[in-house]
Amino acid sequence: MADGKGAALTRRGLLVGIGAAGGAGAMYAAMGALGLAPTGQDKEFTPPRAGDFTLRGKASASVVILGAGVAGLTAAYELGKAGYDCTLLEARPKAGGRNLTLRGGDRVTELNGPPQEVTFGEGVYFNAGPGRIAPWMVTLDYCRELGIPIETFVNSNAAAYVHVENRTVRARTARADMYGYVAELLAKVTDSGALNRTLTRDDRERLLEFLRRFGDLGPKHEYEGSPRRGFEKFPAVDGGTPLDAPGTLRQVLAAGTGRAITNDFGYEQATPMFQPVGGMDAIVTRLQEAVGTDRIKTGAKVTKITTMDDGVEVAHTGGVLKADYCIAALPPHVLAKIPHNLGAQVTSALATPVPVAAGKIGLEYGIRWWEREDRIYGGVTETDLDITHIWYPSHDYHAERGLLVGYYNTGPEAELYGALTPEDRRRRALTQGKKIHGEKYRQNVLGSASIAWHRQEHILGGWVRWPSFDPSFTLLQRPAGRVYFAGDWLTHLIAWQAGAMESARAVVTGLHQRVLRSP
Amino acid sequence: MADGKGAALTRRGLLVGIGAAGGAGAMYAAMGALGLAPTGQDKEFTPPRAGDFTLRGKASASVVILGAGVAGLTAAYELGKAGYDCTLLEARPKAGGRNLTLRGGDRVTELNGPPQEVTFGEGVYFNAGPGRIAPWMVTLDYCRELGIPIETFVNSNAAAYVHVENRTVRARTARADMYGYVAELLAKVTDSGALNRTLTRDDRERLLEFLRRFGDLGPKHEYEGSPRRGFEKFPAVDGGTPLDAPGTLRQVLAAGTGRAITNDFGYEQATPMFQPVGGMDAIVTRLQEAVGTDRIKTGAKVTKITTMDDGVEVAHTGGVLKADYCIAALPPHVLAKIPHNLGAQVTSALATPVPVAAGKIGLEYGIRWWEREDRIYGGVTETDLDITHIWYPSHDYHAERGLLVGYYNTGPEAELYGALTPEDRRRRALTQGKKIHGEKYRQNVLGSASIAWHRQEHILGGWVRWPSFDPSFTLLQRPAGRVYFAGDWLTHLIAWQAGAMESARAVVTGLHQRVLRSP
Predict the structure, then answer these.
(1) Cis amide leading into B38 (omega within 30)
(2) What interface predicted TM-score (ipTM) does this complex get?
(3) Euclidean distance between CA atoms A88 and A103, whole angstroms
(4) Residue A387 needs a FRET pair 20 to 30 A away by CA distance; which of A224, A280, B25, B503 works?
(5) What is the pLDDT of residue B470?
(6) From B504, which residue of chain A is nearest by alpha-carbon distance?
(7) pLDDT tens-digit profile of A171-182?
(8) Which residues cross the membrane (chains A, B) (predicted)?
(9) DSSP codes of every residue in B231-248
(10) A510 interface with B at CB cutoff 8 Å
């Protein structure tokens, strides 16, 4: 991708762009692609099979897995295919980790905060953790393998809004105007002859053909609006009622919608995306079933990890567990606080990644006004408010009730909301959403539930950020004695379940090869 | 939208752009928006109610409806709400018109061609007519009202391909490269000072900020590729394996992917779109149930229409029907051949719109290789081949079998395929698709069914094109005596079911007001 000339600058530039569009995961991925980050396993994954042992006349091994989140469950699931004797220790009252779907009857507790009783109606759910899956991600393979029905998740919606600097405009309108003016500018520059030395006549013709199409330009290459912007009343028997004319180029640039309309350009966020039918926790449920719920000890907080020549010993609040190997599939900042004998480098490495605050609120409404009145079926409204996003549901369209994600924010905004009581979070989210949707946003709210991941016991963060490219990352991709580390935080898919799964697969591969090689 | 200066040119330019992106419907809509097309009813539709008569002490009327397609069924459904006595005459063996979903056990007959026996497996269906619904369309309101579950239809997929001039590239790659180079060109022009007289310093900064984001540019504003292009192997534990570097600006322009990557810019095709769960004909089924199947006489070909002072008389192959009013909801070119006493202007107007050929093939595969191997879940591959498009299914993801739309073409390409036998259509479609997907495209094909709408008896076209803005259009929006005309062809939503429904609503409104006014 990058050649010699000016590669360093180019690389940095790329990372800036990617970080903005796709978050930390995308940035690390790009670092890998550019050769700036360590490379790991990149062959196809081969699941361990029972035959791997029986054909060799060997016995499998016992493995204690710390954490029954997606990484831990995936590791247990894959190892189980070859008959490994796995035990999962989970400090929380139930498995799943950040893959958490809330429904009526659930109770949410938080550090330093009052508990919330979830009152959502029948069939209404709130994916408080991950909510969408890109089609290239291994997560979909697990959905297929585990028989979890999936459906389309609408991540980009031309009818959703962009709310920036107190102005609300439909995404389609913002896009048409920005593309229109960009096309006009470049087309007029081309017409003026300024590109004659850069481009041949044929190339200029091709460029202009594209720009006319891209910006819906007139014959003099002006942008003066386009039906792509949408309508006050869409065409029917008549031709419809157009919106007000677009602002000037200057107004459109000043509107600052550029970030919002490029949000789905990254490979992690591109259309289409997917979700399990009925809630993301179907993945947890099916993994648990496949692993065997009797193998998962909940309420078991790990207090000490000891690697030895012939095995591992894990002390936890319910006793001490011995096994041949250990997979530590906890968040690094949680793991960092557990005494161990894995060495000072591991201690230091575990303390390197920084937890990122993340929060979400689910708002249940008695009527799907966003479908009926706004004609928004799924998708995301992008804002520069502290709620950051509003997600509209991509399922059960036309149902009576429905649930919006009223904020999904990270960093300082997540800390701000996290510090509020659940009631105040809701009040603030409704006040912000009203700026976009008007008074109806505060009406007909049947229930709500919010989560501050950085205040979730034993999790303490939405995900982690590596402050810089760091050898800790590769150090922890390798086992320390008989202890392996797993989690999205050790991959280039941070904050994605696919990262947890890929990490688990890599650890399972390494562990299994070691067991097969061992005498 | 358009101001005085150069408005005529601007309008024409807009129409060229719109026609290319959105088809005839979009062009007419734009004509309406620009004041070039006649305006019709644009108020909210109020369905007739039983109380409209009982409260006035009046009787409702009898209406004979010609054609039980979506327009005819919608008219009967709405009139039925007020107790009108409707009878539908349908020449074909079943209702629905172009809203046709084929399943195993169905039989497709064509003019001048052998019949096809459809052999698709359980649960597999092929929407041979309309296949997608935009969220602003009235079609969704009918889905809600009639209790028809809907799901997302993926119309745009970054993972689908663009196949132009014998090169196949993922849509995400084509888009990243084109946007990257466009951004680079305009950013460098801006850097050179060439826009200093057009834009203020602030505006230039804002423009550059957008362009960096839009094109994923480096700090010197070069485009040298981007993770947005996709990967040979996507990031996981490692950073992934990048694709080959992008071509030069010149190569990217020459690749000709511009049309394909702007295909979803129009308001008719924008993401997201929707479909009824289980097949588009759910709309027909539910409308029929609501209307009462006993009111629909199939196999009844209309042979004469006579309007009189006190009613209408419609002769058909099964007899003669008298009613107070008639709604002629047949294609205009079919209607044009039926003797009537509605006057020469009507005859001439009905002969004005030109039928457009349209064809589709459904290819059923024993394995969803597009999901497993290509990671394409729904969406459309755009091509410059005579198949024009390939549609991947947006439903039953991960099922064993699946059905692709192997071509959906119009005009000369549809005529070409329509002239072939079903077996030759299939062979040709497979040969073309192989150019994109390789040999697997011709393997595991379990069954196929194709349709040439211009060869469907009593329909004779995919839709119509009005050769120019024409007073015939408005003439036929008004009744001729006691005969009303309805269909998508009388709206600005040609080729969409929403057009048929909107037209039916307009006619129902006019007819009902007349009945209420009549002594």
Answers:
(1) no
(2) 0.91
(3) 25
(4) A280
(5) 80
(6) A237
(7) 999 999 999 999
(8) 12-37
(9) EEE--SSS--EEPPPP--
(10) no
Q: Are B26 and B269 in contact (CB under 8 A)?
A: no
Can you tell me the mean pLDDT for B253-266?
A: 93
Is the CB of B203 less than 8 angstroms away from the CB of A250? Answer: yes
CB A128 within 8 A of CB A313: no
Each residue's pLDDT tens digit, A260-291: 999 999 999 999 999 999 999 999 999 999 99
**B208 in contact with A at a CB cutoff of 8 Å?**
no
3-state secondary structure A192-217: CCCCCCCCCHHHHHHHHHHHHHHHCC
Residue whose C-alpha is closest to residue A281's, from A110, A129, A109: A129
Whether residue A271 and residue B271 make contact (CB cut-off 8 A), yes or no, is: yes
Here the tokens at position B433 are 């698709």
With a CB cutoff of 8 Å and minimum separation 6, the contacts of A511 are A63, A79, A325, A327, A479, A484
CB of B50 within 8 Å of a chain A CB? The answer is no
Neighbours of A351 (CB within 10 A): 14
Write out B283-315 in H/E/C secondary structure.
HHHHHHHHHCHHHEEECCCEEEEEEECCEEEEE
Chain A residues touching B210 at Cβ < 8 A: 178, 182, 253, 258
SS3 A347: helix
Q: Which residues of B294-306 are buried (b: 16+ CB within 10 A; e: fewer)?
A: ebbbeebbbeebb
CA distance B476 to B471: 9
A464-476 in b/e form (b: 16+ CB < 10 A) is bbbeeeeebbebb
- Measured distance CA(A241)–CA(A233) in Å, rounded: 5
Alpha-helical runs (H) found in A192-281: 201-215, 249-255, 258-261
Q: Hey, which residues 73-92 in chain A have their CB within 8 Å of chain B?
A: none
Q: Is A45 in the B-facing interface, judged by CB distances under 8 Å?
A: no
Q: Which chain B positions have a beta carbon within 8 Å of A282's beta carbon?
A: none
- pLDDT of B79-133, one tens digit each? 999 999 999 999 999 999 999 999 999 999 999 999 999 999 999 999 999 999 9
- Show the tokens assigned to B77: 């459904």
Note the pTM of the prediction, 2 decimals.
Answer: 0.92
